From TrEMBL:
Gene Ontology cellular component terms for the protein in this record: extracellular space
Gene Ontology molecular function: metallocarboxypeptidase activity; zinc ion binding
Family the UniProt entry places it in: Belongs to the peptidase M14 family.
Full protein name: Peptidase M14 domain-containing protein
Active site (record annotation): 383
PANTHER family: FI02848P-RELATED, PROTEASE FAMILY M14 CARBOXYPEPTIDASE A,B
Cofactor: Zn(2+)
InterPro entries reported in the protein's UniProt record: M14A-like_propep, M14A_act_pep, Peptidase_M14
Primary location class: secreted
Length: 422
């Protein structure tokens, strides 16, 4: 770490990390949105009630919201639902009880026989795996450090190029697909998907020559390593980075920290809020690392994809307004190719549309920045499935199913980009 151990300990105490966060008595509710009035009410509630954790909320009448409610707010929350005549059901009676051993398991896996798909890897395990790939497949895989987190953890980027092309033209200017994951710490399924994408493109390269022949892939599997580790060790639902913010708060929402309509809408100016945008744009070393890589690839990067959870959405700009970009149809066509491929393969349905019109306005996001400033023509966010009654993320027994399903969609979108931008 770049700062003394004593300072780190003091910060941990200030941040309330002297022990693991308990979620005893927290309940998860599914709330139906059966009218526009109910949609608007829940959105206002999300913005005003900081103690209510909305895991899923969109603007679509007929959809369901998912809300985690702490014990102290249960009576208040139920009264609100009754007053608004909101139909609801309890999904998780006690969130602490679903924090099974696999969520905080100390067992380590040495991925010598391929990528494990039955557990959520920790940061060091991810780094070890990709470094081994780069060593074993040095003819077409490289790992570079694009920055360091606040606590000093390297942020790795894996670049994968067709073996034959890499040998003849290692600095080829062919179109680039840039993928990042894990900027929101608690969204464990996103890095799991990024790692699976790397594994497929490298260890099963022969099966994906169509993805490698026309595209170079740069993948950042864990964009917020400090927050990710903290969510494993201390606070399961931690979302932000880990740099101190304000006098007694920690962390910034990395997906509200980009310098495009920064801090205008859908983000908080309160340092303790989960959606705190930071005291200035790019205040976080983690977002600066992604920014620098996007700008380095400016002109070459044709597809930017940020992996998140959860909700089964494919979202594109704009996030700061309900207006659409001039050529939004091009991005929409790529997103719909992915959604269609997933539905045909598995029956799962993804909702496609602009971030603001499907979810809500939230300025300072990475996909808006990639599209508007880094000139990436196809830029979007993919929200993977959640865990439903088993918690925020799918249980480890479903990781393989989720990542394989998601890969079908990513593959279809990448091929669509290759056809139009090669």
């Amino acid at each position: 770490m770049r700062f003394p151990v004593l300072v780190a300990v003091l910060l941990a105490v200030i941040g309330g990390t002297a022990g693991r966060q308990s979620y005893s008595g927290y309940k998860l509710y599914s709330v139906e949105q059966n009218s526009q009035q109910q949609v608007d009410f829940l959105r206002e509630l999300q913005q005003s009630a900081q103690d209510l954790d909305f895991w899923q909320l969109d603007r679509l009448v007929g959809s369901e919201a998912r809300v985690l409610v702490p014990p102290a707010q249960l009576d208040y929350f139920r009264q609100l639902l009754k007053a608004q005549k909101l139909r609801h059901r309890e999904l998780i009676h006690d969130f602490e009880r679903v924090q099974d051993d696999h969520l905080y398991g100390t067992k380590r896996v040495t991925p010598s026989q391929g990528l494990p798909l039955n557990k959520y890897l920790r940061y060091n395990e991810m780094v070890d795996y990709i470094n081994k790939l780069a060593k074993k497949y040095s003819s077409f895989v490289t790992v570079a450090e694009i920055g360091k987190s606040y606590e000093g953890r390297p942020i790795p980027a894996v670049t994968i190029q067709s073996p034959s092309l890499y040998k003849s033209r290692p600095n080829s200017s062919q179109p680039v697909v840039f993928v990042d994951a894990g900027i929101h710490a608690r969204e464990w399924a996103a890095p799991a998907m990024a790692m699976y994408l790397i594994s497929e493109l490298v260890e099963n390269a022969a099966q994906h020559q169509d993805l490698l022949a026309g595209l170079t892939w740069t993948i950042v599997p864990i964009a917020n390593p400090d927050g990710y580790e903290y969510s494993h060790e201390r606070e399961r639902l931690w979302r932000k980075t880990r740099r101190p913010a304000g006098r007694n708060c920690v962390g910034v929402d990395g997906n509200r920290n980009y310098d495009f309509h920064w801090a205008e809408v859908g983000a908080s100016n309160q340092p303790c809020s989960d959606t705190y945008h930071g005291e200035q744009s790019f205040s976080e070393p983690e977002t600066r690392a992604i920014r620098d890589e996007l700008l380095r690839l400016k002109g070459r990067c044709k597809f930017y994809l940020s992996l998140h959870t959860y909700g089964q959405y494919l979202l594109y700009p704009w996030g700061w307004t309900s207006e659409l970009p001039e050529d939004w149809q091009k991005v929409d066509a790529v997103a719909r190719a992915g959604a269609r491929a997933i539905e045909e393969a598995t029956g799962s349905t993804y909702t496609v549309g602009s971030s603001t019109n499907v979810l809500y306005a939230a300025a300072g996001g990475s996909d808006d920045y990639a599209y508007a400033v880094a000139d990436v023509p196809i830029s979007m966010t993919m929200e993977l499935p959640g865990g439903g009654s088993q918690g925020f993320n799918p249980p480890p027994t479903r990781i393989e199913e989720i990542v394989k399903e998601t890969f079908v969609g990513v593959r279809a979108m990448a091929l669509e980009v290759a056809r139009n931008y090669s």
